[in-house]
Design a protein that fits this description.
single chain, globular, alpha/beta, 334 residues
Amino acid sequence: MEIKNDRKGAIKKLKLLTFGSKSNVDTFRAKLDEGFKTVFLPNGVERTEYKYANTVCDILAPEIYSSNRIMLYIHGGSFVGGSRAAYASFCASLATKCFCRVVVPEYRLAPAFPFPAANEDIQNVFKALFTEEQIACSLNAEQGTKPQLPEIIVAADSSAAPIACSLIFNLRERYRSCIKRVVLFSPWLDVSECSKLIQTKKISDEVMSGDVLRKSSSIYTYESNTSSPMVSPLLAGDEALKNFPPVYIQMGEKEILLDDAKEFAGNLREAGNECVLDVWPDMMFMFQMADEFLHESHLALDKIGKIVTDGTGGSSVVQIENKPRLEHSLRSEA
């Protein structure tokens, strides 16, 4: 029997990820954590706490994983919220689908720690993670053989997308060459004063709005900084985008953020990089995190797993591949 989607339930939950003009920082953080945290992780994933470069992180390890593959997941939360606890279930599902360990840093948040505190934390975590994984690969190599290089996936959602891009902009080739793919969910790519989403007062979809972008970015940093590629990656030039790792962007068809994603994908391709934009019909902002309400959430993570494990990212063109399900389609009965 096919499970019916609960769209209203999904939207109500996903709105917990957005910080608007009427939000209070402490209340927002508490509601986000309460809405997404779970006591038991799915699929027998084990969670351990570890410090990379003085930043506390969760390491989520599925029962079966590739020893040389690891994902660094930078959580969203409108620059001011989100936590390891809130993202544990979602990242545990990613760990299972991608057959890899997932590291989730508890990086510093605005307003107490505005830009570039989060960028600094993530960069330090990445370098420490890279070093430890490189050592592990050397120790695991058979005598007389060249050790494998670690395979690192950098993933981020919403407001964390600029932090992920900033990380890569600042990395030397030695580090960057080990990033096999960048995975972005519903990325915020332009919060500058020139953005049409910032300029237009009443622009919104079912979950996101221009108000959320304006309020969150104003707490995150000064307006003069919002035009920096470190905050608005859509404004990065060809030189900054040169030799960017392959990018896979997954988002919903109904998002106000979609036009920015299309432009960013085009910029990456023009700079000679691979970028696949995977758009899901009739889906909303961060639909992947509403798996108890939406069947598509599970299918989307299945697809991410295939991308990471098989490397089947498709060609470097914008792709809209996901067909809406037919309510009365023929299917075999068990």
